Amino acid sequence: MNARTIAAILLAVLALGLPAFSGQAEDKMFREIKLLIFDEKWSAALARLDEFLVQFPDGENAGPALFYKGKCLKEQDGRERAALEAFRAYLRRGDRNRSLAEDAETSIVDLALKLADGGDRSYLPDVLDFVDGPNKNVRNYAAIRLSILKEKKVIDRIVPVLKGIIAEETDPELRDRAKIALLRVAPEELEEEEERPAPRRFRTLHFQVVDHRTGKNLLSLNIPWVLADLVFSAVPENEREMMRAKGYDFDKIMKELRSGKGTILEINDPKEGKTIKIWLD
Q1: CA torsion angle for 114, 118, 123, 127 (degrees, to 10)?
Q2: What pTM, to 2 d.p., does this model score?
Q3: Confidence tier at 148 by pLDDT (50, 70, 90)
Q4: In sequence order, what E strands does the chain have?
Q5: What is the DSSP string of 149-201?
Q6: Average pLDDT of the chain, as a whole number
Q7: Which CATH number, 3.30.1330.30, 1.25.40.10, 3.30.70.380, 1.10.730.10, labels domain 3-195?
Q8: What are the residue boundaries of the structural domains of the chain, listed by start?
Q9: What angle separates helix 42-55 from helix 62-74, to the nearest 10 degrees?
C-alpha cells in the first residue's frame, strides 16, 4: 500500500468522523448556553448564542438558538426591536417547533405592544395581526393584552374575540381575564354577555353610609354588579385579612351578596357612629 493510498484512507476516515464530532461540539455548546439562560445570565447567553449561530448556522439547534436569542434580547431593556427581529426570523424557519413558535408569537405581542404603548404606533399592526391569526391561544392573548389601549380601531377588533372567550372557553381564569378586558374597553358588551346565559334579577350594588346620631345619609354609591364582583374577586388575601381584623368579614359579605337573596346587609361601627348598608337590586 503506497503513501497516496494511505492518505486517501485517512482522509476518508476523518471525513466520516467530522460530522459526529461537529454534532457533539454543537450539543455541548448549546447545553452550556441553556444553562446560562436557566440562570438568567442574559448578556452572557446572548454572546454565546451569537457565536453559536456563526459556528453552526445550519446545525440541528440553529432554530432553537434563534428563538433563545430573541428571549435573551427581550429580557434586556432597550433591545425590544432586536428581540422582535429575532423572533420573526425564528418564525420564518421551516423547522420551527410548535410550542416555541407560540411562545415567540406571544413574545412579539408583548414587545410590539410595549413599543406601541411607548409611542411608536408603527408596531401596533404587529399585534393586531395576531387578533385574526389562526392560533387560538395567541389570538386570545393578543386581544386581552390590547385592552390596555383605548383606540376605537383596536376596540372594534378585540371585542368579538373577548366575547368569544367569555362564551366558549372553559378555563375560569381565562374567562375572568377576558371579562376584565371587556369591562375595560366596552362595559356595555360585558353586561350583555352576563345577561345572555341566565338573566339576573340583581344588577346594581348599593353602598350607603348613615350617621347614627342624625340619621343623615353620609355617602351613597351605586356600582354595576358585574364590575363590583370582578373587583372584589381580585382583592388579595392579605387585604381581606386586614378587613377581618377590623370586623368586616369580606368573604361572608360577598357570599351573602352572591346568594341573591335581596337582603340589606348592615355593618355597624359604634366607635364612628355609623352604619354601612349594602344591598343589590
Answers
A1: 40
A2: 0.60
A3: confident
A4: 204-211, 217-224, 265-269, 274-280
A5: ---HHHHHHHHHHHHHHHHH---HHHHHHHHHHHHHH-HHHHHHHHHTTS--S
A6: 78
A7: 1.25.40.10
A8: 3-195, 204-280
A9: 150
